[in-house]
Amino acid sequence: MRLGARIDTANHEATGRIVASRPAWIDVKPLREVCKSLGPRDVTHAGPPTTWDRMCPVLRGAVLAAVMAESWANTPEKATDLVRRGVVRLRSSHTLGGVGPITGVASPNLPVFVVEERAPGVRQGSLAWATPLEATDALGAHDAAALERRKVWREVYAPTLARAVRQAGGVDLSRVLTRALHRGDDLHLRTASATSLVLIEVTPHLIRANLQRDALLKTFEYAADEESFALPLVMGAARLAADAASEIEDSSVVTALTSNGVECGIQVSGLADQWFNAPAPTIRGRVSMGHAPQDAGRALGDASVLEVVGLGAFVLPTAPTSLDRLGITSAEAFKLSLDMQDICAGRHLLYTIPAHDFAGASVGIDIRRVVDSGIAPLLGAAIAHRDAGHALLGIGLVEAPMACFVAALESFAEAKGVQ
Predict the structure, then answer these.
(1) Quick check: pTM over 0.90?
(2) What is the pLDDT of residue 135?
(3) SS (HEC) of the chain
């Protein structure tokens, strides 16, 4: 079989695995109990692997908060010293089987969402984890209030949610995601419907779990007041689907796409664990009143895993209420979504777009198609401040750096003996 035909066959398998994924939320556990390869003083972060000296201020601030929340240090200065000396090791969440919104920072005792693959086949029973959504009023904050928020998550919200989801026998996230797409979510920039659907699933079990009343009420209010509560769960589900498509010989499909505020990186199914990085792009979007565009940092977070599996910006027309915040028209959203067909190897059977006559979302970003067409994957993004301790400035859109795909395609061609 000719190389082109082999690649097409491999990409068909990759997209088929993504579409076949059936994730379920099954637990909330400390990271050390979920990730067996985590070291005793490891701290995870979003994006491709990086170092302290190269981290953006927001990411650094979140790392300091994690170090102090673990009681490894009691001041930012002492925490910084531990990281600089390598006593605390920085690890990319992607290298450990997890994802996280915005900074994606987690440490051994931080409870994380646990998602399980329930589809029969290659990776049935495999797990992914996702860090909880950070308080959006102070990204990268590491003051007393930030540490208290982590403590409440660890001691109140996480164990309460864990009891409920275990009693429920897990929450079928495939069902949640497909229904949410038809209720106004794109599942990246808007997850309000997904949050409501998850709460509908777990609330009876919260009540039946005989939990202490104050903890129950606080947990319900925490989840209900944050419409993006479900975002980490959606990301964990997407991570499982993307992982299912990894390590397929001859496949040119992207299986990871993530940013750390300084670099954006991708991984490709047929190129094992190699990273292909380029400078993280600037996000296009409206910033909140009182701020200027130059206050915004560059793309940050693992949430682009959603576009990898056909969600987010790939299905923009499903979330019309987000379009005004993005500063685009419905016609523009329609065209942007259609453009993604040109760079993808397949269409999703479950993730459908009502405004496109329920056509399946484009899925399986093919590095060959990206480079040949000159069309970069469109990504949704939260706009974080360039400095730590500020609220999110808004939401926007960004194109993944073309340099990542060019470098990946060159490496892919070299691996296949193509000059």
Answers:
(1) yes
(2) 67
(3) CCHHHHHHHHHHHHHHHHHHCCEEEEEEEEHHHHCCCCCCCEEEECCCCCCHHHCCHHHHHHHHHHHHHCCCCCCHHHHHHHHHCCCCEEEEHHHHCEECCCCCCECCCCEEEEEEECCCCCCCCCEEEECCCCCCCCECCCCHHHHHHHHHHHHHHHHHHHHHHHHCCCEEHHHHHHHHHCCCCCCCCCCHHHHHHHHHHHHHHHHHCCCCHHHHHHHHHHHHHCCCCCHHHHHHHHHHHHHHCCCCCCCCEEEEEEEECCEEEEEEHHHCCCCEEEECCCCEECCCCCCCHHHECCCEECCCHHHHCCCHHHHHHHCHHHHHHHCCCHHHHHHHHHHHHHHEEEEEEEEEEHHHCCEEEEEEEEHHHHHHHCCCCEEEEEECECCCCECCCEEEEEECCHHHHHHHHHHHHHHCCCC
